[in-house]
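# step 3/5: fold
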Amino acid sequence: MKKLNLVFGTFLAFTMLLTFTACGPKDANIKEAVEKAISADIEGATVSVEKGVVTISGMCKDEACNTKCMDAIKGIKGVKEVVNNCEVKPAPTPEPTI
């Protein structure tokens, strides 16, 4: 009887482990959601995801755009951390008047 309980308990624990790890969003799904969220705002956007850590790069038109994208990414289910390697376009310098 003890052996049966041990086998059943082990089986139950293994099943629960698989169930809980299978429920979370996969990196590919997170990447797809991030790309969809930032595609219109970041020029040349590249996205990579590893174990819920999102790394983005590209060119934002201004700091407000950069902040908007970061907030959008942080709101996506499964994102644990965001590494922002995006650059912000420099403001155009005014032409000197003579």
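# step 4/5: annotate
The CA atoms of residues 13 and 19 lie 10 Å apart.
# step 5/5: archive (pending)
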